[in-house]
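Hi Y.,

Following your request, here is the sequence exactly as I used it, all 233 residues.
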Amino acid sequence: MLLVRCLPVLIGCCSVATDVIGQALWQVKAGASYMRCADPLGAGHGRYTGRAVDGMGYHLGATYGPSADRVLGIHGELLVDVRSTGYTFTESASFHPATPIIGTGGHGERSMRTVQLEMPLMLAIRKWPLLRLDVGGGVAHLLKAEERVVGHVNDNGLEKPLDERNDRTGSMARWEAAAVIGAEVDSGHRLSMGLRLWKGLTNLDRAEGSTISAATMWQLSMAYAFREAERTR
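Below is the corresponding structure, written out as tokens. Let me know if you'd prefer a different format.
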């Protein structure tokens, strides 16, 4: 409920700041994400602790910022961001990365999938035609985190399929802060393409026995403007 109450405030701040500088431009956007962490999210990774993990995800949402005829403005976004990181494992001993199992080991993939509500707020710079640079920060609120282990386990010489899902929302940081920098190229006909770096400043792990894991994420997206951008320069 607190998050729902804060959203109108965020949108209102963007609206006031943008109207002071220039006419607002609304867009819808969607794209793919690549995320990397220095350590697997969650606890109980055994010998895989301290190894970098990565994975692909996607995001979609809406943006609000200055029109194309303004050099400076405030650019805000509200996105649903689905992230995923993981690694493959092979165990020859009687150990399973998610649950202790009596047997002779196993193999498969362990991953963490999270769903965040992402809210970047940036200074938009349009010094060059058809190009916008964004510099600022952002916060993300965790909605759900799910860990999944898929593979096979050897139980006393018998190989059995394995597919486990566990809710890890309570062991992850609910709020994340990040530094954000990116660029967007405008086609001149409502469509644009952007590339952005989201550099997390928050340790996402809260589970006992976990190590520090902050997100470094690249986002590639396409955006569509609800009206044709105005250019007087």
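DSSP finds one helix and nine strands in the chain.

Thanks again,
Q.
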